[in-house]
């Protein structure tokens, strides 16, 4: 149908999108190689970034394969080839659908992870990693299987197979837009929370001095500290994740754009009474001009989307690789590759000191390859290295006398108000101060009462 509703050369112009995807594919491969080869300090790689880039690569392969296979788009004069009659159509259509699913799912997973980290302070661990893998790859596989079995793909415009218009909204575009909408809602909620935290930190950022006579309350000070701590935490996360948040918004905008275009194209080409009535003037023009489509292109504009819109959709599909490199690539990757080639290609031979063989002829003693502990060559130290004073010259009494023999005089500190007093003389106990009788030393005071038996 595109041969009759679009101008001459439209099919050849659609190959521009294929070559755009070739350039984007090169950038995506560069990004993946950087993630795989370079250290983390140069790439800051994360499994969310790696998996999203892989999804973009699958979509780019859908546009690269037809450049090599040069598939025939028409099965006969009125029927295009589909996935059953053309292997190239089946492969390119499968890559396109799976890549779209993978991109949307990993964008959703990234938006969900960012929302959990910022709004709920959730630390992503191993469970989150495996859950993300299941959501990011299993759902696209299931979605691809259902779409190919229920709807299928065929040549509609260009040399890449797209999903058929029959039940495409229920089988593919509907679920795809649902996950894209969830990702967009999560992203807006996260942005709103960040704005709220920022405004709250500005309102609570007041001087700590208090002019009133009442002391500051503990509850008010804790609220201020909590708001500032939350702002610092959110600011730190945004500094680390702003690239991921930006690519989420860009990819969702792309998905919404080409989804709306494809759905409107499906609705406009649905064969029914309304379509026959709209195309009556165009068909009459073709009959009157003996099949000259160029004289009837103005009438066909109301039946299909314009060439500019279709070309924009195809090119935007290929820009995903550029967005990935723009937001997930870093200038430090170039320094990492320079360091990689410098150490691999221009590496000099390692220097081995000759002193390593001085103490032993067995090289295993310094290469640490032997399982047993090597014998150490231990010798008695020379007399010049011993102490000039032997241990027997010291005596215990001399040492003790040096430590405890001398006493130091007490010096009164300048700022001290206490003065030492001399010890008092010994005073015996005075029995007259109590009721006890004094002791008679002569023994006269002692009396013995004898009771008669």
TrEMBL record:
GO terms for molecular function: G protein-coupled receptor activity. It is found in: Membrane. The chain crosses the membrane at residues 20-40, 47-65, 85-109, 129-152, 172-195, 242-265, 308-328. InterPro entries: GPCR_2-like_7TM (IPR017981), GPCR_2_secretin-like (IPR000832), GPCR_GPR1/git3-like (IPR053247). It comes from the Eukaryota. One of its GO terms (biological process) is cell surface receptor signaling pathway. Pfam families: 7tm_2. It is a multi-pass membrane protein. Residues 10-191 form the G-protein coupled receptors family 2 profile domain. Residues 417-440 are annotated as: Disordered. GO terms for cellular component: membrane. Keywords: Membrane, Transmembrane, Transmembrane helix. PANTHER family: G-PROTEIN COUPLED RECEPTORS FAMILY 2 PROFILE 2 DOMAIN-CONTAINING PROTEIN, G_PROTEIN_RECEP_F2_4 DOMAIN-CONTAINING PROTEIN. This is G-protein coupled receptors family 2 profile 2 domain-containing protein. It comes from Fonsecaea pedrosoi CBS 271.37. The lineage of its organism: Eukaryota, Fungi, Dikarya, Ascomycota, Pezizomycotina.
């Amino acid at each position: 149908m595109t041969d009759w509703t679009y101008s001459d050369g439209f099919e050849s112009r659609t190959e521009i999108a294929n070559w755009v995807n070739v350039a984007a594919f090169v950038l995506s491969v560069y990004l993946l190689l950087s993630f795989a080869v370079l250290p983390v300090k140069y790439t800051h790689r994360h499994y969310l970034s790696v998996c999203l880039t892989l999804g973009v690569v699958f979509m780019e392969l859908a546009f690269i394969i037809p450049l090599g296979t040069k598939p025939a788009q028409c099965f006969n004069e009125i029927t295009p080839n589909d996935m059953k009659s053309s292997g190239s159509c089946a492969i390119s259509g499968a890559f396109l659908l799976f890549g779209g699913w993978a991109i949307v799912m990993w964008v959703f997973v990234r938006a969900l992870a960012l929302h959990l980290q910022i709004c709920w302070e959730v630390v992503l661990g191993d469970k989150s990693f495996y859950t993300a893998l299941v959501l990011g790859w299993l759902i696209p596989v299931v979605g691809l299987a259902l779409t190919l079995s229920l709807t299928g793909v065929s040549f509609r415009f260009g040399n890449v197979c797209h999903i058929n218009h029959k039940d495409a909204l229920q089988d593919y575009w509907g679920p795809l837009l649902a996950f894209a909408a969830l990702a967009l809602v999560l992203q807006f909620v996260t942005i709103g929370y960040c704005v709220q935290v920022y405004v709250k930190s500005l309102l609570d950022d007041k001087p700590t001095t208090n002019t009133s006579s009442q002391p500051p309350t503990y509850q008010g000070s804790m609220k201020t500290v909590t708001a500032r701590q939350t702002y610092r935490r959110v600011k730190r996360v945004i500094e680390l994740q702003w690239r991921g948040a930006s690519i989420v918004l860009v990819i969702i905008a792309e998905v919404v754009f080409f989804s709306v275009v494809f759905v409107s194209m499906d609705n406009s080409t649905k064969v029914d009474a309304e379509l026959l009535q709209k195309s009556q003037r165009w068909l009459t023009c073709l009959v009157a001009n003996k099949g000259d489509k160029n004289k009837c292109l103005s009438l066909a504009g109301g039946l299909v989307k314009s060439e500019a819109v279709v070309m924009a959709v195809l090119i935007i599909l290929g820009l995903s690789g550029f967005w990935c490199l723009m937001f997930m690539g870093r200038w430090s990757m170039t320094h990492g590759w320079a360091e990689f080639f410098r150490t691999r290609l221009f590496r000099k031979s390692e220097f081995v000191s000759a002193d390593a063989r001085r103490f032993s002829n067995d090289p295993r003693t310094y290469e640490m390859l032997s399982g047993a502990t090597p014998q150490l060559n231990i010798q008695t130290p020379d007399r010049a290295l011993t102490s000039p004073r032997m241990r027997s010259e010291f005596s215990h009494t001399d040492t003790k006398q040096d430590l405890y023999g001398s006493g130091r005089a007490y010096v009164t500190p300048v700022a001290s108000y206490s003065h030492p007093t001399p010890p008092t003389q010994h005073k015996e106990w005075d029995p007259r101060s109590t009721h006890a009788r004094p002791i008679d030393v002569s023994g006269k005071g002692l009396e013995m009462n004898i009771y008669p038996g």
